[in-house]
Write a structure and sequence with these properties.
Helix content: 40-55%
Number of helices: 4
Structural class: alpha+beta
Radius of gyration: 14 Å
Strand order of the largest sheet: 3-2-1-4
């Protein structure tokens, strides 16, 4: 069995590798995902200005009031919410940063929902 500290350290190392290639600008900010055991959080970040432009998560009021069910369903709702907020902020294109997680399950559901809502990766 793998120790949780070791597992987290490996994910962070993978994330560092991704971050060396993916960077957010004003024209194309970075959409970064953080996944905990219960929740999933998303931020749209301009790395040049060091600003978070848009953020959403499963613990936000809009999601809690809307969706009940599986974590994958909640991730889809978060993807739609962050895409809507980004579009209203004038952001149409983003660089997707999966945060060292596999593009599978909740991360994939969130990304596909954001694409369906109009964000371009």
């Amino acid at each position: 069995m793998v120790d949780t500290k070791e597992k987290t350290a490996r994910r962070v190392a993978r994330h560092r590798g991704i971050r060396s290639k993916v960077s957010g600008t004003a024209e194309r900010p970075r959409l970064v995902v953080f996944r905990s055991l219960k929740n999933i959080y998303v931020q749209v970040i301009d790395d040049v200005a060091h600003k978070t432009l848009v953020a959403a998560g499963t613990d936000s009021k809009e999601i809690k009031a809307q969706v009940k069910g599986k974590k994958t369903d909640l991730a889809k709702a978060v993807g739609k919410l962050v895409a809507g907020k980004a579009m209203s902020a004038g952001i149409a294109k983003v660089a997707f940063d999966r945060g060292g997680y596999r593009f599978h399950g909740r991360v994939k559901a969130l990304a596909e929902a954001a694409r369906e809502a109009g964000l371009k990766f």
